[in-house]
Specification:
With 304 residues, the protein is α/β, with parallel strands linked by helices. The chain has a domain of 157 residues: Rossmann fold (3-Layer(aba) Sandwich), CATH 3.40.50. The protein is built from ten helices and twelve strands. Strand 5, helix 5 and strand 6 form a beta-alpha-beta unit. Helix 2 packs parallel to helix 4, helix 4 runs parallel beside helix 5 and helix 6 packs across helix 10. The chain is globular and about 60 Å long. The termini are far apart. 43% of the residues are buried.
Length: 304
């Protein structure tokens, strides 16, 4: 009998990749999302609002999963400033609803709660999160790890770096690819705006991230936080250059010379993930080519 994996946030950027990956592994994918759609690569697709405890309990009972990958959440810094309470409700309370429902099962699944590299160190005194989103994801991680200890359920947490790759994404590379395709078609009038050319981030292909989730779910240690990414920081200027190299020509952009929103991250140690058999395999240049190819396909007109 196939093992069952419950994937929340299944219709999101990472969720779509995760559904395809775990279905290809031979698992029975029970996909849930606030707004699911029929094209998901899943065996069962259900609607679920993680802020509604009754809805969460219903899908958990129906799925009776062997594994749970929790991707659902509010993943936008700007939105967290506009509505910090909603950010806390979705990312923290929604996670609590899920964990509480899973605790009620007779057979406890292995659970991975996916947080964010934008979390901050809760040991800082006083606490200085950069934005409500960072606070919500830090609390989410603490909740997941503490739940594993308090209720003896195998819960792990993950903090991947900035995820890129083919698919609909509101991250820098996704927005940039969509702009470039519009510019190629002559429908982009203004240059693409970037806040800074020097701000640096760690970029990891979402397909590599999904294989990392697989390894953590299968071999991770309950209560553990897994931080991972690539082994290189890239500035926004370098990202722009990579897109120009993939295009073979420059495109218009404007540097607003704004202060970086967050400090440069530290590089995650590769040792922890190597211990469970994972290392990133997709080169950054391939990710950029695939992002562009996917954006062109999504924006293609019938005449193309």
């Amino acid at each position: 009998m196939k093992p069952v994996i419950l994937i929340t946030g299944a219709s999101g950027f990472t969720g779509e990749h995760a559904c395809r990956h775990f279905q290809a592994l031979g698992m029975r994918v029970f996909a849930v999302s606030r707004s699911p759609y029929a094209t998901l690569s899943a065996d069962i697709v259900r609607s679920c609002d993680v802020t509604d405890p009754r809805s969460v309990q219903q899908v958990v009972t129906a799925a009776s999963p062997d594994y749970v990958l929790h991707l659902a959440g509010m993943n936008d810094v700007r939105s967290s400033w506009k509505d910090p309470l909603a950010c806390m409700e979705v990312n923290v309370t929604g996670t609590l609803h899920l964990l509480s429902s899973l605790t009620s099962l007779d057979r406890k699944p292995r659970v991975l709660i996916v947080s964010s590299a934008l979390s901050f160190d809760p040991a800082d005194e006083p606490p200085r999160p950069s934005h409500p989103y960072a606070l919500s994801k830090t609390l989410q991680t603490l909740t997941a790890r503490a739940w594993s200890h308090m209720f003896d359920i195998p819960v792990m947490a993950a903090e991947p770096s900035n995820l890129i790759g083919p698919g609909t994404s509101t991250g820098l590379c996704g927005l940039l690819a969509d702009y470039i395709v519009r510019w190629e078609r002559g429908s982009a009038d203004d240059p693409f705006q970037v806040s800074s050319l020097t701000e640096r981030r760690n970029y990891l292909d979402v397909r590599d991230a999904v294989t990392a989730y697989e390894r953590i779910l299968l071999q991770g240690t309950p209560g553990t936080l897994y931080r991972f990414g690539s082994q290189e920081l890239r500035s926004i200027g370098e990202v722009l250059s990579s897109f120009e190299s993939a295009l073979g020509k420059p495109f218009p952009y404007t540097n607003l010379h704004a202060s970086p929103r967050d400090p440069d991250p530290s590089l995650p140690s590769p040792v922890q993930m190597a211990h469970i058999g994972w290392t990133p395999r997709i080169p950054f240049a391939r990710s950029i080519r695939d992002i562009l190819q996917d954006a062109r396909a999504r924006q293609a007109t019938p005449s193309d």
